[in-house]
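Methods — Computational structure assignment.
A single polypeptide chain was analysed. Its primary sequence is given first, followed by the predicted tertiary structure written as structure tokens.
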Amino acid sequence: MTGELTFVRKTGAGIAEVFDDLAGLRIVVFREYPYLYEGSVEYEKGYLQTYLQSERSFLFAVYAGGTMVGATTCIPLADETAEIRKPFQDAGFDVGSVFYFGESILLPAYRGIGLGHRFFDEREAHARSFNHFTTCCFCSVDRGDSHPLKPAHYRSNDAFWLKRGYKKEHVLQSTMEWPDLGQPVSTPKTMIFWTKLLNDQPCK
């Protein structure tokens, strides 16, 4: 990792200004296990429309020179798609009080220098700024323990998320679809949610 890093914040429709950078970064990082995402610009356009249409959505990006090397997003759960809202509605949550955290992605050379914590700090601060939301959440794909493409050295982020004060909620599950590497069509994936009360402070 070399060079000075700069930080960019965008909200709502302003996220469109960095669409190409964000889409490209998502496609690169999400090719890695456990997402194994066979990305396309067309898929990215559909995904990011949800964020552009929400006035309270937020993006925090990291640049090295002119290249986006990391990014994270969040959005009120009420502004998310039906498959993201449904587990919370079914469990009796007040959807209007929950903030949903989207991707948190970094190129390998920029990992391990504190940016993962920065991503959570930025999103939690954005959610708290409205003085309305009580809970934040995100979801991660469940590939099981015996996936054939799981690298031998793979280490999940569970310990990091627990350290940040998040709890894995096995009762909150959703299904998302995307094409796996080398596959021409999207297939369903199980997503498990993690939650945290916004008045809880992380251990760092």
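Note: The two ends are 22 Å apart (CA to CA).
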